[in-house]
Amino acid sequence: MSDDVVTATVTEGVGRMRIERPESLNAFTPRVLEELHDAIRSFEADDDVRAILFTAAGDRAFCAGVDLGDEGGLSESTPEALDTVHRAQRVLKALRRAPLPVVGGVNGYAMGAGMDLALGCDIRVVRADAELSQSYVNVGLSPGDGGAYMLPRLVGEEVAKDLIFSGRRISGTEAKELGIASTVVDGDAERTREVAFDRARELADGPTVALGNAKQLVNEAHDINMETGLEHAIEALGECRETDDHAEAIAAFDEKREPEFRGE
């Protein structure tokens, strides 16, 4: 039996990475974070991967945050704990910077830094009765793993502050209502993973360069002025026009058929 804490496989153009610690509610350790980061980098380097799916094993949790009983947990010294935070931030940045669409399948609890990892995905498919929380204040901490950066971009400043200040739990259904999730699944954990995979596979069938460029443009929109954003949009559009996928789309339009994108 494999002792990997994260599995990474490729299916139908989708790079699938999954935390494999259901007995610990998929709480992360430094090793989990290293393996997640390695999986993202390997998918980026694989021409057969055109979208990424981030899920977790088991019926109860996507990620319960940091493993409090592990080295690097909250009970460790401040330098060790902050090293774990830096590792979590590195995963978040890798998810955001990957030139591929990333779908998160949130099959259960997503607490604290676990919620932040979900926020790092481009699209979230969330189980209706999942529970998500910016639970840092419950242990006397402020968010350190990216939630305070990501959440206001999704729900606005006031709602983000309410969720962060209170540390309250929200359901997958409320997450959809707030704009944190694009799809809510009225089913169990396995069904949530299936729906998330179907969404990732749809994206993998799309024009890869165009999707990657669109992701970058949206990600940077809050951090640059309009003039710079428009310049970047022109550059990205010019690159897309030179791709085989664009030529295929034009040919398909002329021939009155659906395009078959190859990610080139």
Automatic annotation (TrEMBL):
InterPro entries: ClpP/crotonase-like_dom_sf, Enoyl-CoA_hyd/isom_CS, Enoyl-CoA_hydra/iso, Enoyl-CoA_hydra_C. It comes from the Archaea. PROSITE patterns: ENOYL_COA_HYDRATASE. GO terms for molecular function: lyase activity. It holds the Pfam family ECH_1. The keyword Membrane does not apply. Keywords: Lyase. Belongs to the enoyl-CoA hydratase/isomerase family. This is Enoyl-CoA hydratase/isomerase family protein. It comes from Natrinema soli. The lineage of its organism: Archaea, Methanobacteriati, Methanobacteriota, Stenosarchaea group, Halobacteria.
